[in-house]
Amino acid sequence: MSQPPATPDTANHLLPELLERLDRIAVALERATGGPVVAWPGDAPAYRWERGGGPFGGGHLEAVPEPALIRFEDLRNVDRQSIAIERNTRQFVNGKPANNVLLTGARGTGKSSLVKACLERFHDQGLRLIEIDKDDLADLRLLVNLIRHRPERFILFCDDLSFEEGESGYKALKTALDGSLTGAAPNLLIYATSNRRHLLPEKMSENLEARPGENGEIHPGDTTEEKVSLSERFGLWLSFHPFTQNDYLAAVAQWMKHFGASDSEIDAATDQALLWARTRGARSGRIAWQFARDYAGRKS
What we know:
This protein is an alpha/beta fold. It contains 10 helices and 9 strands.
């Protein structure tokens, strides 16, 4: 028995459901073929880029509605770096020229925290943060195309960035920083942290590649040039150094106050804080934070 023809009211009722199904199919196809995802994940302070997992690669953004943030005022021993990155980010948010930023140096000294502090400070002015893993840098072209015409300002954040011999992800990063024919997206900056100044492993044997020329000129080897060229594409370099004992104790006091400790409790905990650092073989803001959390947990 044949079905009765659809009336205009029936068609209008089915149209939203049909459009929703077509949109889901389009998104699935684009993820599978490596194209940018049309559907925006909704407004959020931060996002993560996730690989699509399809046979042809690709990826999509996932919203992070409640990112872990920190204030500039809560950080210690990074005053110079705080001023520089805050100024650069303010210029970017206000639509003025600004640089990509490379933060390098000792572990646990506040590199990642400064990037999160930028989001805390400027989120209300339209700044958004996108976190991407080093292994997903091959998707940078897709990501840049996805956000190029968005009204927000984006910081692409790659934490603990470094490359080993044979990895090719740095080539995609070089292109996104400075080498693309279409140019960088005007609403995107790249902030990266690393324990390596030049992001790639450096060997003593590379010094042998430098040789004197006929006029006494030094000609560095090609591999050295390749390594330096990547880090040079970051316009602003910020270096971080290990904490002195006084720097460490100041950070301990700051975080203990954050957890409600009194001045007398902070003074009494000095020896415990120093022992905590010695057992870890380093002094840093991260270790100060960990001690303060342990102390507050035991006291409560």
